[in-house]
Design brief:
single chain, alpha+beta, five-stranded mixed β-sheet, five-stranded antiparallel β-sheet, 34% helix
């Protein structure tokens, strides 16, 4: 109990101290971020595959579980070796401080203060509580023979003196628990208040009418088939895959974007207001995550509004490699230290690569990058979709490896031609007769030309394609299947506008995205 209370007190103190430093320096966040940075790519892929968007919650719960176990161990150790057990708490403060200052977004040694302050308070409380539990007159480790004899004499003096100070411990433990709870709640409140300016700044944003509006979604682009994904993905349903344990809340009023590096003849530092004054374009673009397994959920379609990135780079004097520019890689840096590298040629080849300010008619949600993020059609997110962006550096692939490349992912990753069955769901039990098989297919910046469906080992049959919006958005499809009783396997494949047929070869997501045909097994009653 002493160990648990000491650990609780340490975390509460660290939470309050982080309000004076910054919320991301809290030890659970710092250690969690360090764990993410040092986790092998295959393990991260496994976590996303099994826990989905709850992977960060699972990680934080795991850290708390480990800390709880360590607190129990240190409490048991302190009961016999009081100073050693208390010193153990200090060690974990050092570990947390190192984790905080080693994060890529760390700004100063002050990031270590929450872990260190929490450890000092926790160690002191453990030392004190164990002292309250020790029987008066009982010998402790390290006493001399005379001290031991004197302790035994004191132990024999009166029964009252040799009993555990239960009342004192209960009072001290209760007071410590109450104080720690108050300190933790105060810290949580102060940390929350720091994000209020960011929330207020987002509420004040009024997106201007775009100079180039998106064309209306064609009639027939959205199928009226129960179970198929909506053509436009609502913001609250749009997938989120990133390494941020705490979603950054950035004040748009103080946000700045710096553009610099090789081939930049006119460096620029831009505010959010500067971007709002520029000509904005609005486009429907489907994004996909490289962690998406075949048939997975990490793909979504939204209407984005923002500044054309190629125009902004051109204003800074940047030329693509095909026109003699010295930089072939654009490295985008986020406020949380993430680095994402994109091919300059792809960003400037005429596609609608954006610095997006809005999503589906509103300012970007915080979870999706407010105030500004990158959106590049045709590239997986880990090489294009930097959220909470604050810096763009022009460099080369030879000179710099961004975050994911250092972890064995590919440097370049165009989105692969993919298709997915949304309905019927796996292991569904439809009635015999006409069963509508439907889903989505995507090959951003190439477009979908054909979708085919196969039942069991039968022939491929062409599905009905919904109307195409643009080649940068996914396309819905449907196939009326004359289902007969029994178990069946339904498979789908797509062909893009280049004539490339979606490959049957099954690969994992590492290093440049999964491939293979999506199948579902159903039993027809």
């Amino acid at each position: 109990m002493s160990g648990l209370l000491a650990g609780y007190s340490a975390l509460a103190t660290a939470e309050l101290t982080s309000a004076a430093a910054r919320p991301e320096s809290s030890p659970v966040i710092a250690v969690g971020g360090a764990a993410i940075d040092r986790t092998p790519a295959a393990v991260k892929d496994w976590a996303i595959r099994h826990f989905g968007t709850n992977d960060k919650l699972v990680l934080q719960l795991g850290i708390l579980a480990v800390l709880t176990l360590l607190a129990l161990v240190l409490g048991a150790l302190a009961a016999r070796y009081r100073r050693i057990g208390s010193a153990g708490v200090l060690v974990f403060g050092v570990v947390g401080g190192f984790a905080a200052t080693s994060r890529p977004d760390s700004t100063s040694i002050a990031d270590a203060l929450p872990s260190v302050a929490g450890a000092v308070v926790g160690a002191g409380l453990l030392y004190y509580l164990v002292g309250r539990l020790r029987p008066r007159g009982t010998p402790t480790a390290g006493q001399t023979h005379d001290e031991t004899r004197q302790a035994h004499e004191a132990h024999e003096a009166t029964e009252e003196e040799t009993g555990w100070d239960r009342r004192g411990f209960i009072v001290a433990a209760t007071a410590a628990a109450a104080a720690s709870t108050g300190v933790g709640l105060l810290g949580r409140s102060l940390n929350g208040a720091q994000g209020q300016n960011a929330v207020a700044s987002r509420n004040q944003v009024r997106l201007p009418a775009p100079a180039s509006a998106a064309s209306p979604v064609p009639k027939g682009a959205a199928l009226r088939v129960k179970g198929v994904s909506p053509f436009m993905t609502p913001n609250q349903d749009f997938y989120r895959v990133d390494t941020a344990l705490v979603v950054p809340k950035v004040d748009a009023a103080s946000w700045r974007l710096r553009i610099h590096g090789k081939g930049v003849t006119r460096e620029a530092t831009l505010s959010f207001a500067d971007l709002l004054r520029m000509p904005l374009i609005e486009r429907n673009i489907t994004l996909a995550c490289v962690s998406n397994e075949v048939g997975g959920p990490y793909v979504g379609n939204a209407r984005w509004i923002g500044v054309r990135l190629a125009d902004l780079l051109a204003q800074c004097g940047v030329e693509p490699p095909s026109k003699g520019g010295p930089a072939d890689q654009l490295v985008a840096r986020s406020v949380d230290g993430m680095t994402i590298g994109s091919p300059v040629e792809d960003v400037m080849d005429g596609r609608d690569a954006l610095l997006a300010l809005g999503m589906n008619g509103e300012p970007l949600p915080f979870a999706h990058g407010f105030p500004v993020r990158m959106v590049v059609p045709g590239l997986f997110g880990f090489v294009s979709a930097c959220k909470w962006i604050q810096d763009i550096e022009l460099t080369t692939f030879d000179d710099y490896d961004p975050y994911w490349v250092k972890r064995d992912w590919a440097r370049k990753a165009p989105i692969k031609t993919q298709s997915r069955i949304d309905t019927p769901k796996p292991f569904a039990r439809p009635e015999a007769g006409t069963v509508m098989v439907a889903g989505v297919a995507w090959a951003q910046h190439r477009g979908i030309d054909k979708v085919e469906v196969r039942v069991d080992d039968g022939p491929w049959r062409q599905a009905d394609l919904a109307a195409e919006d643009t080649r940068d958005t996914w396309r819905q499809w449907s196939f009326p299947w004359k289902a007969t009783s029994g178990g069946h396997t339904v498979t789908v494949r797509a062909t893009d506008r280049t004539g490339e047929i979606q490959t049957e070869k099954r690969t994992r997501t590492i290093p440049d995205g999964a491939s293979g045909w999506h199948s579902v097994v159903v039993t027809v009653d």
